[in-house]
Amino acid sequence: MKTYITLFLALLAITAFSQQPNTIDSLKAEFKKPDTDKFAVANLLAWEFAKSNPDSLDYYNKLSLKYIKDDVQKGKYHVLIGAKLFFDQKTDSSVLENNIAIGIAQKHNDFKTLSSAFNTLCKIQYQKGDFIKSEQYSKKSLDFSLKTNDSKLILKSYINYGSVQITNDKLEEGISTFQLAEKYFTGDNQYEQASLFSNLGSAYTGIKDYKNAIKYLQKAEKIFAAIKNEVLIFNTYHNLSENFVLLKDPENAEIYLAKAMGVAKTEHQKTDVYFTKAQLYYNTGKYDLAESYLSKSIIIDLDYNILKAGEDYFLMGQINNAKKNFSKADGYFLEAIKIMKENEETRNLGPAYSDIIRNYFQKKGLSEYVTFFDGMIEFSKADYEKEKVKSLLELDTKYKTADNLAQIKTQQLQLANEKAKRNIAFSGIVFILLVSSGGFVWYKNKQKQKALQTQNTLLGLQQNINTMELQNLNQQLDPHEIKNLLASISPEIQTKAPESYRQMIKLFNLTKASLNSKSITESIENQVQQINDFLSLEKNMLSVPLNYSINNSVENAEIQIPRLILKNLVENSVKHGIKGQANGGNISVNISEVNGMIHIEVDDTGMGRKNLISLDSGIGTSTYQKLFATLNQSNKEKATFLILDKEQGTKVEVSIPTDYKYS
User: Fold this and answer.
1) Domains, the chain, with CATH or none
2) SS3 655
3) Whole-angstrom Cα distance, residue 52 to residue 58?
4) pLDDT tens digits, residue range 412-459?
5) Is 637 left (phi over 0), alpha (psi -120 to 50) or beta?
6) Count of CB atoms within 10 A of residue 642's CB?
7) CA 79 → CA 97, 136, 351, distances in Å?
8) What is the C-alpha separation between 530 and 512, in angstroms, rounded?
9) Does the global pTM surpass 0.70?
């Protein structure tokens, strides 16, 4: 099933501004009047053309330039330049113009300009794929819009903020944001209302509340049909069909698929319909029909959307499994895995691996073990979820406790300061005594606050590493149990396909390394084994050559270093360095102990940071840099983390004292 994120990206781009022909005509007439505020009218005309006609936006914004009278209007002019540059895909220049507008608008409390500037910055980050930063900018845009009396602007800001929340998988928060926006509905913002209903429907789809999803999508359907917006009415019809498929209502699913195909204009739209039809017929047991429609989808997606082709291949594998064509199914699963690995799309990766293992049992006549395998997966999922929820609850309690303590200490400090101020007037001697006492209290509180801050930071870093663990998992399983199961129930795997068995064990060992650890550190020995397994698997999976060497001369294998640090560094080298080169490359890992310091060096011959759009995959290297920056405050000998750009590739050098304290 297609994800809901695509819809939000489209809506985010178009809901910020919408063209109203009647408004445009009236503004043009107003501009011709001799006593009108020419700048204000030209500025409004430029906004009316935003997104629908960037050239007209540029024309009216330039027209407004000669009528600028003050700084406030200059800020409004610059924010529109930023919008035009964004539409022209000149994002760096757009950021500069919006920052100029923000600097001017902040001096004069021009909240509308501030809201518009942060909205464009939000969309720039969204387009770059930095959804966290996009959400931050969207929240600022909303906060500034709420300081205006412009209900239409506020409504659009709520829609954008809720959309980015949902993109970040904050579905419940996104739904709450959309519901807050409903009080800003008026008679002249029907378009925005329909966008909100559409997004709200998709949010309910995300939490599997398909009945509410359908209710809101049908509200959006009525409005989009009335205003005759073919793109959005297609999206709405298609979303409705998907929800009826998920609700197991084939009759209504067919109705909306027919409606969607009736308004489909592009190959992208047609392949969406073909895929959903295939999903519908797969769910209802019409496998030949499902395969027919999916074949059409694959032909289009291989030319237009390779990630979607990976999803097509995965569903085709499931269909052939259902038809008991296990060897054919494996071929499709392997194609899906290849595409998903190359494009770093992991959503269906774990299920594809699991299906291939099931098929192995089926092809070997060991079908009774499929039941055991499936049972073990369900048990492992339930057990893992239970432990993860417990862990998160404990972490949340620690955060709340630390936060409450910090607030209490801050209040105590404020009271002590106020008391000192009141007593200063009594006498010089009392003044000195009070200042001394107050200084002592202040110092003690400061020390305690610093300790709390350090603890909070460490908790945050632990949460980051937990998040990184989840991103590393292809399936929420206990790999130790899988390993034991395979070893006990199928010894012929080891004898007839020893290399495949070794690769599976490496994968399971690597996954196991990311599970069930409550420590922020792990031994060097374990981490060296992790990267050995990881690089071995990547060497087999990558479509480009990968050569690597691992040299560890540290004698004490139990010395602790931050958990997953080696895995993260070599993964960055593969993902951001070697993978993007046609000729592949080399990775060299060296770990040594010199004069009481552990030295880690990861050196690659990849693309280098200068050729990357993003320098970091997210919480990877930044987590460890933040960890060391925090812990260095309480360690006499400091740890260092350096990223060095080479002529060809990147080198990371980490130095950690052997007696480094992690608490």
Assistant:
1) 1-184 (1.25.40.10), 266-363 (1.25.40.10), 367-518 (no CATH), 535-657 (3.30.565.10)
2) strand
3) 12
4) 565 555 555 444 333 333 333 233 333 434 344 445 555 555 555 565
5) beta
6) 11
7) 6, 19, 46
8) 10
9) no
